[in-house]
Amino acid sequence: MIEIRDLYKYYGDRRAVGPLSFTIEAGEIVGLLGLNGAGKTTTLRILACDLLPSSGTVLVDGLDVVDNPHEVRSRIGYLPDRPPLYDEMTPRDFLAFAAKLRGMDGSTAEKRVPEVLEMTELGGVADDAISSLSHGFKQRVGIAQAIVHKPRLLVLDEPISGLDPVQIVEMRRLLRNLKGELTILLSSHILSEISETSDRILVIRDGTIGAQGTPEELSTKLLEGVRFEITVVGGSVAVGSAAEVLRSVEGVLAVEPTSSTEPGEARAFRVEASRDVRAALVSTLVARGLGVVDLRRSERELETVFLRLSAGTGRAGAEEGALPPTPPSGGATPQRKKEKREASEAETTKAETRRAKSEAEAKKTEAEAKKAKDEEDEGEST
């Protein structure tokens, strides 16, 4: 679906992205994780044909973003970090407008807009002014405009930024519901949220991929283990033996009660394991007559993973050496390819203009000759 090879983007002598290479398969939800300034937005803008790369190859469905920008755009739905909304319009009118911009005919758009309103759970505010909507609903409208033309790829830049906890849960649910129909690439600097949404995470640091994998794989690789927080309920005697039950699960390395107290006959534990053992934990506890009311990845673990992934020396003093101040040479750069294509199109336009002018002059000459002949015939008849 997406293939990026040796991508570089420079602003003058400053390298914003590169070397960057990764692939994304159809149907995946992939998170692009990194600190502010790591290169997330630049990468997404290049994918969305909003920015030209300095060098490298970027393919969407086998189409190059430089050589085939119009075809690529038709396959992509893009939500920048600031949704491109018109506050005076309603979501319904705005989606109809977006559909028209995407080239959809009136009858097709008329059927599609209600479908998208339902998919994004905007039906209740479809006819309210966008200016009156909460930030969470505005983000939904932004996603709705990105999918109204039925793209194959959805590119979202920080879709969770600025949302409150309830809106985050709703956005997470929305993205999961869209997963079956779309391939999704979203960026964020919040590991805990991106790990809840994504099948796989790409960690970008200083414009290049520092690590990639599932949240569990990244945790295991960096922390030599996975940490969970689990809350168990049951009879007082059963709960008292919960720690031993947890320790009996294969792969569990350590179990410790947390300092927090739970109401009633509930007890919380922190579990460290060599791999993802959540399914085994639940089945073992249930078999012993215990219930599980909460099971989640440890927030402390996620914070530690993110800090380690984001750590590193600056560009100038990187251990692997500073990257070249100019793009790699060899072959035409996307900018040169674009200039060549535009020059060719300009020559074609000039040729067509000359041909049209020549045809017009020929028709004028023919008309003048016909007029002269008619006048001559009229004189002879007189």
From TrEMBL:
Segments forming domain ABC transporter: 2-231
Keyword flag Nucleotide-binding: yes
Pfam family, one: ABC_tran
CDD domains: ABC_DR_subfamily_A
Basic and acidic residues composition-biased segments: 340-374
UniProt-annotated stretches for the region Disordered: 313-382
Signal peptide stretch: none
GO MF terms, alphabetically ordered: ATP binding; ATP hydrolysis activity
Family named by the database record: Belongs to the ABC transporter superfamily.
Protein name: ABC transporter, ATP-binding protein
Source organism of the structure: Chondromyces apiculatus DSM 436
